[in-house]
Amino acid sequence: MRKESKIDMLQFEKMFSQKGHTLIAGVDEVGRGCLAGPVVAAAVVFPEGFDAIEINDSKQLTPFKRDEAFEIIIKNALSYAAYSIPVSTIDRINILKASLAAMMGAINRLSPEPEFILIDGNRAPEKLMIPFKCIVKGDQKSRSVAAASIVAKVIRDRLMTKLDKLYPEYKFKSNKGYGTAAHLTALNKIGPTPHHRYSFSPVRQLAFKFE
Fold it and tell me: CA 44, CA 81: separation in Å to the nearest integer?
C-alpha cells in the first residue's frame, strides 16, 4: 500500500481558506516537453476541506491509479475543466505561451468562478484577474493542484492513445508524444505527422529531411 506523503497536501488550501477564500482552484498543465500532441491544462475546485490520499502528483501514479483518482476527482469536485492548445498554436506562439493559454482556458471554464487560484510552477497567465499563488512543484504540495495534474494527464493520455491508432509507428500510446528512442526512430524513418511540433528542434531538423 502506498504511503501518504508527510507533506500536508491541504496546506495552501487551508491558508487561503482562512483568509476568506472558499472556492479555491488548483491548476496544472501536461505535455510541455512532448514532441507531438497538444498541451493540456486542467483546473479543479473541491469542496472546502475535501481530501483523498489517492489524489497525488500524476507523475507518481501508475496509469491504473491515475484513472482511479480521476474518477474520485470528477465525483467529488465542485467544478473541473480542461483545455487543450493544438500543435499549430504551439508552433506559432511557443510552448510557454501555449501552456499559459491552456491554463487560462481551463480556469475560464470553471463554474462557479473560483475565488483563488493555486498554480503549479512559477508563471501565471498574464490576464488572470483572480487572486493567485504560483507554487513550484505544486502538484506535490497541494491536493487541488495534484488533482488538476491528474485530470490534465488522463485527458491528454487518452487523446494520444487515439492518435496511436492513426499513427501506430510512433508508439504514441506508450510514449504519449515524448521523445523516446522508439519515437525518434520512427521520426527519422517516416518523418513527422501533422500532430508533431515543428518548432521543436528534433522535429524541425527531421522535417527538412522529408521536404
Answer: 7
